[in-house]
Specification:
Helix content is 82%, strand content 0%. The protein is mainly alpha-helical. The chain folds into 2 domains: 127 residues, Tetratricopeptide repeat domain (Serine Threonine Protein Phosphatase 5, Tetratricopeptide repeat); 55 residues, no CATH class. The longest helix has 33 residues. It is globular, with a radius of gyration of 21 Å. 39% of the residues are buried.
Length: 250
């Protein structure tokens, strides 16, 4: 009897070991990301993927690293390759768990990055997909500040299009959902209140305030973005952009 119970206990412990290893690898990968070492993070996340190929927490993180790689590429062709990998992994994460908020928003981010470099014929559909997946992420997790950030940017970019371009989009592509600078401001303010020390949030909020002709508010957030410690691989570029915008407004 004792031998039988020991065997059951051993099987239960053995089954839990891969899950524990995956959690450790994710935590180590997150630390590498925080230290702005994406290659190290990718190696750790891919190791976790080998242990649990359908884990959405692993898959969306791999998508994020590919997204970071794309942002650092100087070649548009190379950036598109990395973005396609980012989209593929985000799709895998959504397929593994359609109710996973970060999987949904990771797909929105990848589509958004692709929209920047994609041909005009693809931009409208990609923009719709950005909004669709970011909205779904917020429906699943009302305090997902990344989804707020994505939707805040989306609202500003669409609301800032000229009426001529909007008319052309309506005629040729059926248009885009309604967007406003006010909604952009609301979402970005909410994201900032949740994470006040994030460079990207202050930079994007400054851009929206600039579009709303609030130069004083824009300058305040640009100065804040410049003063904050860099915690993401893209923060160096964001600080450079903030400095340039501040110089233009001064």
């Amino acid at each position: 009897m004792r031998s039988f119970l020991f065997s059951i206990l051993f099987l239960l412990v053995s089954a839990s070991l891969p899950a524990q290893q995956v959690d450790v690898l994710i935590a180590r990968g997150d630390s590498a990301q925080f230290a702005m070492q994406p290659d190290v993070a990718m190696r750790l996340y891919r190791e976790a993927e080998r242990l649990d190929a359908d884990n959405p927490d692993v898959l969306w993180r791999i998508s994020k690293v590919y997204s970071d790689y794309a942002a650092q590429e100087s070649s548009e062709e190379a950036a598109m390759r990395e973005l396609q990998r980012s989209i593929d992994y985000a799709k895998k994460a959504v397929t593994a768990d359609p109710r996973h908020s970060m999987a949904q928003v990771s797909l929105a981010i990848a589509y958004g990055q692709k929209a920047v470099v994609a041909p005009n014929s693809e931009k409208v559909e990609l923009s719709r997909l950005v909004r669709q997946h970011a909205v779904r992420a917020l429906e699943l997790e009302s305090e997902n500040h990344v989804a707020m950030l994505v939707l805040g940017i989306w609202n500003r970019e669409v609301a800032s299009l000229s009426w001529v371009l909007k008319l052309a989009l309506d005629v040729v592509y059926g248009g885009l959902p309604d967007a406003s600078l006010e909604e952009s401001h609301r979402l970005l303010q909410q994201a900032m209140r949740m994470y006040p020390d994030q460079i990207m949030t202050h930079l994007e909020l400054a851009k929206t305030l600039k579009e709303m002709d609030d130069e004083r508010g824009a300058k305040r957030h640009l100065r804040k973005a410049i003063s904050l410690p860099k915690r993401d691989i893209g923060d160096r570029k964001r600080v450079d952009e903030a400095r340039k915008l501040l110089q233009e407004l001064t």
